[in-house]
Amino acid sequence: MFKNSLTKNARAVITGAGSGIGKALALELARRGSLVVCTDINLDAAEQTASEVRRLGGEAWAVACDVSKLEQVQALADKADELLPEPVNLVINNAGVGVGGKAIGETSIEDWEWTVNINLWGVVYGCHVFAPRLRLQDQAGIINVASTASFSAAPLMGPYNATKAAALAISETLAAELSGTGVSVTALCPTLVKTNISANGRIQGESNDLFNRLMDRIGMSADKVARMALDGLDKKQLYVMPQVDARMIWRIKRLLPNSYAAITGLINRRMTSKFV
Ligand SMILES: NC(=O)c1ccc[n+]([C@@H]2O[C@H](COP(=O)([O-])OP(=O)(O)OC[C@H]3O[C@@H](n4cnc5c(N)ncnc54)[C@H](O)[C@@H]3O)[C@@H](O)[C@H]2O)c1
User: Fold this and answer.
1) Which family does the similarity line name (predicted)?
2) What is the pLDDT of residues 42-75, one digit of tens each?
3) In testing the pocket of ligand 1, which one of 15, 19, 150, 207 has its CB within 8 Å of the most ligand atoms?
4) How remote is the CA of residue 255 from the centroid of ligand 1, in Å?
5) Is 160 assigned a catalytic role?
6) Is residue 260 part of a domain?
7) For the domain that residue 119 is a member of, what is the CATH number?
8) Which domain holds residue 68?
9) How many domains does the chain have?
């Protein structure tokens, strides 16, 4: 842990805290002595996380919130202020869904809208509602859970890539707007993490098989990703890329901007024939 650590004894709100990375963040924050408002569209799952936090000796509450609905995010902010002894000083916009397996033009508009409503509007609402409140604190933080998909532009993931690119752009913009204040912003950009994203999402056919195999073989644990995200915020890092492949993709795209799409397409075709 770091000097003046924000993630120690924080008053945190986490969206999508009922599973995967959100749940791991809640448990890690509890280990750091933080109070955690665990929210999820699935209240039972949020309750489960909150009770695991309490079992660790921490304090947590479960609140239902669908991040794709502005009025529910506004109600969440009011509820968090009611539950916590002092105002929220850490917000983690984590809730998100996975969509993939079809090319642009074949992906249904319903799947585009579902992804945009949760992955993009969820981050917009979370930042819109909480950023003005966080600015009132001496020290505060926002973590937006983006993805390596924010910049990797892998084929057959159009809606996911687009919404995660937007989550990164929002984080970068917020970081600039909040520079000179006490609010730090971190965009978490992992590659594969072992969670329930495939079971909960709409990744189709062969892409789902490939995703699950790769997640089993090389996925990082959600606990490790959670620790790295919180440490990154404490170190005031805007970008947290927990895995080496994320950092490699980031660099290759910058080194070879015009060849990048052809390389990505080729790798995707090779991997699909190797793993499926
Ligand atoms: N697992 C990965 O490989 C990976 C990689 C990069 C980024 N991410 C991102 O991490 C975040 C968390 O995903 P995860 O992998 O832990 O998946 P997960 O499916 O295990 O957890 C996601 C949680 O979000 C909740 N949720 C879904 N829609 C919601 C809504 N409208 N409102 C509130 N909650 C909602 C679900 O109920 C679930 O509890 C997502 O933003 C995802 O895009 C995941």
Assistant:
1) Belongs to the short-chain dehydrogenases/reductases (SDR) family.
2) 999 999 999 999 999 999 999 999 999 999 999 9
3) 19
4) 31
5) yes
6) no
7) 3.40.50.720
8) 11-249
9) 1
